[in-house]
Amino acid sequence: MLEGKALVDDSDMPLKMQVQAMSFASQALDLYDVFDCTSIAGFIKKEFDNKYGNGWQCVVGSSFGCFFTHSKGTFIYFTLERLKFLIFKGASSSPSFSTFP
Question: What Pfam family does this protein match (any one) (predicted)?
Answer without folding.
Answer: Dynein_light
